[in-house]
UniProtKB/TrEMBL annotation:
Protein name: ArsR family transcriptional regulator
Species, as recorded: Comamonas terrigena
GO MF: DNA binding; DNA-binding transcription factor activity
InterPro entries assigned: ArsR-like_HTH, HTH_ArsR_DNA-bd_dom, Metal_resp_trans_reg, WH-like_DNA-bd_sf, WH_DNA-bd_sf
Gene3D superfamilies: Winged helix-like DNA-binding domain superfamily/Winged helix DNA-binding domain
Record domain HTH arsR-type: where: 1-95
Keyword tags: DNA-binding, Transcription, Transcription regulation
Keyword Cytoplasm: no
Pfam families from the UniProt entry: HTH_20 (PF12840)
Amino acid sequence: MNEDQVIQSLAALAHAVRLRVFRALVVAGAGGLTPSVLAEQLDVAGTALSFHLKELVRAGLVTQERCSRNLIYRAAYAQMDAVLGYLTENCCAGADCGQSVGSCCPGDDAATSNPSA
């Protein structure tokens, strides 16, 4: 992951609604959520939510899949882990500081991840 990708991801999360959306999708896990469920849970207007989801997808933090007539949004755990890995890559200048800097979620893809683990 390069610096520009990290900046794009962090910029996408630097908005209260987008941060809440991303966190809700992390909690939802591999099943993801539809925009209508997200809008209801977060009390966000559909048009505003659509804009924010588009920004999260563009940053690679969220994936979108069409399932029949619905769109399903899921957190992109691999991207989240890559951002966290970039931020902690040189933690404590390489000294053992007792902190785990590995993956936040088991597995690298959303289908096998359990974000509450």
